[in-house]
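Supplementary Methods S3. Complex input for the manganese (II) ion-bound model.
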Amino acid sequence: MSGEVQYKVVVGLEIHVQLCTKSKMFCSCAVEFGRSPNSRVCPVCLGMPGVLPVMNRQAVEYAVLVAMALNCEIAEHTKWDRKSYYYPDLPKNYQISQYDLPLSSNGYIEIPLEQGRTKRIGIIRAHLEEDAGKNLHPSGNFSQVDLNRTGTPLLEIVTQPDMSSPAEVRALAVELQRIVRYLGVSEADMQKGHMRFEPNINLVINKDGKEYKTPIVEVKNLNSFRALERSVEYEIQRQLDEFLQTGITIETGGKSTRGWDDEREVTVLQREKEEAHDYRYFPDPDLVPVEFTGQWLDDIRSRLCEPPIKRQVRYVNEYKLSNYDAGVLTAERSTADFFEEVVAQDGDPKRACNIITQDLLKLANEKGCSVVDLEITVSHIAELCKMLVTGVVSATAATTITNIMLASPDKRPQDIAHEHSLIQKSDAGELETIVDQVLAENPKAVDDVKSGGKKTKKALGFLLGQVMQKTKGQANPKVVSQILAKKLG
Ligand code: ZN
Ligand code: MN
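Predicted complex, serialized as structure tokens:
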């Protein structure tokens, strides 16, 4: 059809994840955030002449663990290369990285999409390298350099260009954060720059029956999920507009690098992209190659856990939770563990899920901690679940009880319910008397119910509300509804 334009979005992602080792990648300086500038440095990470790097075994093992979780093939033999470039925050004038023999390659990650669907995104490679320092730009005509971060272990992960929407790009980033946190290899704290994203974006456009590709744009150094998603959204529209106006294609345009302006929410051209040969990669003569033995790899593999996305799907199938609730429960490993312990103590899964996702997570967010840090015990939550199932307390009362438990974690929910008169009235005889009173006081509503018309439902709700009011909210609404139905036919 003439004039019709359709397009497909193609996005690949490069992600840098800071590993939470105690010391740096090639020296014994501490990896610590927020310390006074240049207080965590030594001759090695300062790039002094004549010093030699020593590999951090923990960093190598953490990297392999993530690579295994990403279903990658682990290389038997991997080496270190120097990636040369001059920056004030990289005093050696080269970054130790991995070029042609990365420690892992050829894997995939399963990402959750809406309504419980998942999509598999290919992983090209994952390799280890060291981070650079930070350039600071205080007011005035000068800049400063803080080298505390120099030499921090970074895992670089490169995906296939398998993502086809901003939402998929975000889903991958969030899933990767969940994975590295589950494995305990990174805090993955965005605010501290523990995860940085660089999407490669272009479009495949079909115009008048012909196919065109727009030039690939790499957006550098995004450090929030929002910036990542918004920058991809922006680039899609910008590339489409540019193509329609100028007809530029991947053949005529070539790759370029753009930055993200967080305030204006636009990408800004930085430079035409350099090629790998500009970096003059060559093997680092100061470091020995790494050879993985089967025993070593088995040992690392034994530290893998059930992948969070598998856990999420299992909660939907096994406990009949919604995909959304299962996602909330499995966002943090300790919360998911807590949930499973409650279920193991005969806590009803649906009730346990409600208490954790609605009450405990709210309290935890207010305190800025995890659910397990609230110090409310598994057995008390399991007991509260049973009280809900048997109708001893209402859901509203359960919320009150969890709030009281926060202040007095030693008190049993049973005792709290008695002390605060939160036990639900389920005694049919007692409730019947109250229902009779309410019916006598509200003849109009009774007529409305009996008329069987449109007003029935509303009138029934009104009568139920009256009973709840008379009992100060302690009547079991289920029992009251049954009595009402019996009396009013
Ligand atoms: Zn150092
Ligand atoms: Mn890198």
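The mean pLDDT is 94. The two ends are 64 Å apart (CA to CA).
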